[in-house]
Here is the input.
Amino acid sequence: MAPVDDIAKLILRVALRDRAAFDALYTATSAKLFGVCLRVLRDRGEAEEALQDVFVRVWTKADSFAVSALSPLSWLVAIARNRSIDRLRQRRPTTSIDAAADIATNEPDPERRAELSSEGARIDECMDELEPARAAAVRAAYVDGASYAELAARHGVPLNTMRTWLRRSLMKLKECLER
Amino acid sequence: MSDPRGHEREPEGDELLAAEYVLGVLDPAMRPEIAARIDRDRAFAALVEAWTARLSPLDAAYEAELPPTSVKAALDRRLFATAPGKPSLWSSLAFWRSLSAAAVAVAAFVVVAPLLSPAPPADRLVASLAADGSEIRYVVVYDPAEGDVSLNHLAGDRAEGRDFELWVIEAGKAPVSAGIIAVGGTIHIVLPPELAARIAAGAVLAISMEPKGGSPTGAPTGPVVAAGDLRSI
Here is the structure.
């Protein structure tokens, strides 16, 4: 993938309605963003539609990147996650509950995860301070788009308990990351 | 705004709301409302952005996978399709069929070539100008070599009998007018060297709504309708 600075410049040029920059940005980032859509939606057809939505938003909202402090890739992945999660939640709830069992097996093993996220070492340390089940729930919510209801079913706890788990875990993570 | 789950009763209500939105676990019915709030409430948007940055190392779990080429084609149709009418030469099947394989290779090169052309000069600065509670949006490109400010009007109109005025604001100093922004899609204002020096020192640009003909006092008198930092492009 193109260096981060190049992607930032491409996004800023897209804000100026530069079609060539848009094409180059698509070439540089569509595989990563398609990976996001696929992981959350677990359906190729839906992921393809979501990916289109993502780049429509990038084309129309690229100017907002100029006032964002996010890294360009974080900004793009956030758009892809939000779009995919919106689509996921629009499905009938029964399908997503059924799919909850599948997600559990999709978790990368710890070694693979370490390999994937050398940059994320700090957040991994902070995740390790959480109880393992709660850390797993945070990851499944973020990476796979699992809902409170799915996580509650998977961990065999009431929905309100899961909500409390995750809220406390988020605040602990924040406190740890700011330490 | 009522929230059935009691975010407002907790001291860290907005903080949690932003965190749960970014994590993706918020009640689906609330997500559109939150997305709209991000657009109009800058303080809340900053919370969301901080949580996005905080959790983004988890993005490493996403493995890249090439989408089929049909996705880009459909995307281009969605964004750039011209109004239905006579088919262009490019979309004419007969035209493509008439080409030999060699000619196709040449045509493919012609289509790809613009991607390989050099980017615009890399010393320009760009800012997106927007403000809370304002529809006014401009994208500004500043060319330090020429002192040229190019203002691309994206959205929002000036009120009847009012003008937009551009200001250069350096931290700790009074705003200095860079002139009235004429009506139009793309407007150029050339900055005098004194103002260009302020930009070089990190000044921001802002647009205020003023009486016709500009501020009578030399300082902004109307509401700031858009402002933003310049970033290098």
